[in-house]
Write a structure and sequence with these properties.
The chain is of the alpha+beta class. Among the domains are: 150 residues, no CATH class; 81 residues, no CATH class. Helices cover 54% and strands 15% of the residues. The chain has a three-stranded antiparallel β-sheet. The chain has a three-stranded antiparallel β-sheet with strand order 4-9-8. A three-stranded antiparallel β-sheet has the order 5-6-7. It is globular.
């Protein structure tokens, strides 16, 4: 009986202990769960924060890349712009040296400016076509030519080049053949009279009355008859020339330049003949006087395009360089080089 009571008392004691321990267990479990949730929640929050940081970092890298790309592109653009600027400066320096070769520095500023546009036009045309560029005068030759006036003359020429920077003569959006010469016969020539198929409608006759009184307008040469024939034979060795009567001027243009000449039955170009005999112009006459031959030439140069002498007269009358160019190149317009 006593043994049974002790067993029952032990059972109740365990039950009571179990009942007392369950809340503690549950509380502990709940605390642990809250703690784990809290921990995991913090880790999750940290993961979110890490993700945000990662995204922001990526965006920052993208922005930096884009900025770097912009800097690179900007640098390339600046380099290209710089290269283009360097090329332009180099070309303008060429223009200066070409103009120094083509016209006397004693001419007025407007005449020199007109020559700058001519030189630049012919230079760009040659560069575009891949042909020989106009002859130029490098600085050492300028120094030799101008001597103690080098600085003054150089600055004058430089200011004319800068005043016309980039300007060229265009016709139908192409560079024209900007022909020029020192002195005409009294009027300039029309290219279509010499070459019927020449597409140069801007090279037409322009009156140049001032040229007829210019220094160097008239050139007279005397040869002994045999001496003259020898010069002609040297120029045309296959012609079989024996007599002066075998030389005959066939045709002239409206400005009186010889366009065709016969030598022992063969017809030649007037310009070719004048170069062969080293005459200043193809506007010439040949006259036999006793045992001598007299050649009278008028003007200096081929006679096409701008006459530098008349351009100077126009400049002194108040014409600007654009007006001077318009006088000689009918229908041509001034446009910026490289914008074709």
């Amino acid at each position: 009986m006593g043994k049974r009571r002790r067993k029952r008392a032990g059972f109740w004691l365990k039950g009571i202990c179990l009942i007392l321990l369950v809340p503690v267990f549950i509380t502990t479990l709940m605390q642990r769960m809250r703690l784990e949730n809290l921990i995991y929640g913090k880790e999750g929050a940290q993961e979110v924060l890490n993700t945000i940081d990662s995204v922001e970092g990526m965006e920052r890298e993208v922005r930096e890349h884009q900025e770097n790309k912009k800097d690179i592109l900007s640098g390339q653009a600046e380099t290209q712009s710089g290269d283009s600027k360097d090329e332009d400066e180099e070309t303008e320096m060429k223009v200066l040296q070409i103009v120094a070769q083509e016209i006397g520095i004693d001419k007025s500023a407007e005449t020199i400016k007109a020559q700058c546009v001519i030189a630049r036009t012919n230079l760009y045309d040659a560069m575009q076509a891949g042909t020989k560029e106009p002859e130029s005068m490098p600085p050492d030759q300028q120094q030799e030519l101008w001597g103690e006036n080098f600085d003054k003359n150089y600055q004058k020429l430089k200011s004319c080049v800068e005043a016309t920077a980039g300007e060229t003569l265009l016709y139908n959006r192409t560079y024209i053949y900007a022909a020029y010469h020192a002195i005409s016969s009294g009027r300039t020539r029309s290219m279509s009279e010499l070459y019927e198929d020449a597409d140069m409608p801007y090279l037409v006759t322009a009156e140049c009355h001032a040229d007829t009184t210019a220094e160097g307008y008239l050139s007279v040469f005397y040869y002994e008859k045999e001496e003259f024939l020898e010069k002609c034979r040297a120029a045309y060795p296959d012609a079989g020339l024996t007599e002066l009567t075998q030389i005959e001027i066939v045709s002239r243009d409206a400005a009186e330049y010889v366009t065709k000449i016969k030598v022992a039955g063969e017809t030649y170009d007037g310009e070719q003949f004048r170069h062969a005999l080293e005459l200043p112009s193809a506007c010439f006459t040949i006259t036999e006087i006793d045992d001598h031959v007299r050649i009278v030439a008028r003007g200096m140069g081929h006679g096409f395009g701008l006459s530098q002498n008349t351009a100077e007269k126009l400049a002194k009358e108040g014409y600007g360089y654009r007006e001077i160019l318009a006088y000689f190149y009918k229908g041509a317009v001034i446009g910026q080089a490289g914008n074709l």
